[in-house]
Amino acid sequence: MGERGALVEGLRAYRLIAGMWVRSSMTYRTSFVVTVFGNLTVTGLDFVGILLMFSQVDSLGGWSLPEVAFLYGLSVTAFGIADLLLGSMDVLGGRMRDGSFDMLLVRPAPVLAQVGADHFALRRLGRILQGGVVLGWALASVDVDWTAAKVLLVPVMVVSGAMIFSAAFVAGATFQIFAQDAAEVQNAFTYGGTTLLQYPPTVFGKDLVRGVTFMVPLAFVNWVPAAYVLGRPYPIGLPHWAAFASPLVAAVCCVLAGLAWRTGLRSYRSTGS
Amino acid sequence: MDSGFIELDGVEKVFDVRKKTGFMKRERRQVRAVDSISFRVERGEMVGYIGPNGAGKSTTIKMLTGILTPSAGRLRVAGIDPSRERTRLAHRIGVVFGQRTTLWWDLPLIDSYKLMHRMYRIPDARYRENLDRLVELLGLGDLLDVPVRQLSLGQRMRGDIAAALLHDPEVLYLDEPTIGLDVVSKSKVREFLRELNAEHGTTVLLTTHDLQDIEQLCKRVMVIDHGRLMYDGPLTGLHEAGESERTLVVDLERELPPIEAPAPARVVRVEGPRQWLAFPAAESAAPLVARIAAEYPLVDLSVREPDIEAVIAKMLHTLADTPEPPPEPATA
């Protein structure tokens, strides 16, 4: 089975398992409706916080409300997609502790796909929906001379962002193989990362921005390309083309996360812990 | 080529265990969970794999199913190296872990089977045929539409066994398949496994704490302790090696002095009209029962099987006393 075959197999297994989780959640319809509504409300409150801030100030780090909404919408939508697809990977540590992870290894399907689809929950659509609404409003409100490149960059940002966050989820899952109670470390990078990106880079210290650009390249989810779209200076003076580097950065992240996962799985199978 | 269906040659598994010895300090220690084990299982055999907790049983099973990679040695199942070709092997093996279910908790039983159908790419006709057969043999007919969370432990175990067999695996690994089941469920499971092995020729490897599982199912037993294979042969041999005893519990009409039983049977306990007699496990209880019934006012009786741990402990003790190497694997 080549890489391509493994990918096709993985997607197929993912679809099958995710489908089972959706059916499972539908057996408790009321609970499902309540959690979808709750999810929408909680993530919505996030943006209400930003609105409240802007009721007191006219700009945040020099960025206007529609501009911050643009950042927010991009970050939340991209993260929402990754969260929907891989957001339950934090149960991996628990599965390793109780031994049910072993059952995934005796199935004829790629383990990463099985872990990714674990506890798949449609209620996570709420975040994408909410991010999408804010993004839509921001796109209609920002003062931008739209060029073809800028228009194209918006969907590219969402997809690349989702890939970068997905890579973070996979990297976090890998970390859990070595430290099985480390789900919170993963959450710091994923949930923490998306919150960070909701604010302009100008409000943060240089070192943090540098770290988020080069170490954990979250800056490529929105800060850098959004700066291009909005005609603002790039954080930490990156070159002009950096705005278009997001897909490349995303691809590199995914490859690295995939390799890390493979190493982690190999280590699990040789140490059993 | 005359090679076994399951082959292990000097298989080892060494774990690095890190122990916290201080705030940041950790001590590394190597634990040899499986220590140079070699055995062969032929196609269609039904083998019991037993040993005390932590002896290395589940580590061996995990290596055989491709979950763990051996540290050393050669291991083949149906000609496949499990650790290298995990997914290819998965199509040819069935695995049931007694304490863990693969069934979908909130969904009707049949949904889990439909998932297996698609995940293992079982051809429709074969899936239908296998499902019908398993449903009939395991008595699952009325349960297919019941959510798994509502099944009893015994029903769920039968459901799990069916799930592991839908894709016609050539070998079935069972880890404690009767644990926690009531007598009726146990005998149903055993009856099914016997039939599966006889009719279908499925190779079965089972670990258990229940000596009756072994007695009723396996002609061959392997005992593992401290990661080493201590015994490989027929169950009767295990009884002899361990000099294990069964217990005959008799209720007499009234309190009487200890029964004078023919040696080696002897009374080990008296409590009012009830007396306990120990006798060699390899011997039949019938002559002893006949003799007591003829000479004493017998009201009721029951026979208790030796505890598997006790048998093994006794055997290991015996082996430790006699400075002989452990017996060679029975089949060459």
UniProtKB/TrEMBL annotation, chain A:
Claim: Membrane is one of the keywords in the record: yes
- Keyword Transmembrane helix listed? The answer is yes
Q: Which residues cross the membrane?
A: 32-57, 69-87, 152-171, 208-229, 241-261
Keyword terms of this UniProt record: Membrane, Transmembrane, Transmembrane helix
UniProt xrefs under InterPro entries: ABC-2_transporter-like
The record's PANTHER family line, in alphabetical order, gives: INTEGRAL MEMBRANE TRANSPORT PROTEIN (PTHR36833:SF1), SLR0610 PROTEIN-RELATED (PTHR36833)
What protein does this entry describe? Answer: ABC transporter permease
Please report the organism this UniProt entry assigns to the protein.
Streptomyces tuirus
From TrEMBL, chain B:
Q: Which residues form the ABC transporter domain?
A: 6-251
Where in the sequence is the signal peptide annotated? none
Q: Which InterPro entries match?
A: AAA+_ATPase (IPR003593), ABC_transporter-like_ATP-bd (IPR003439), ABC_transporter_ATP-binding (IPR050763), P-loop_NTPase (IPR027417)
Which is a Gene Ontology cellular component entry for this protein?
plasma membrane
Q: Which residues cross the membrane?
A: none
Listed A to Z, the keywords are: Antibiotic resistance, ATP-binding, Nucleotide-binding, Transport
Subcellular location(s) per record: Cell membrane
The topology of this chain with respect to the membrane is:
Peripheral membrane protein
Question: What name does the UniProt record give this protein?
Answer: ATP-binding cassette domain-containing protein
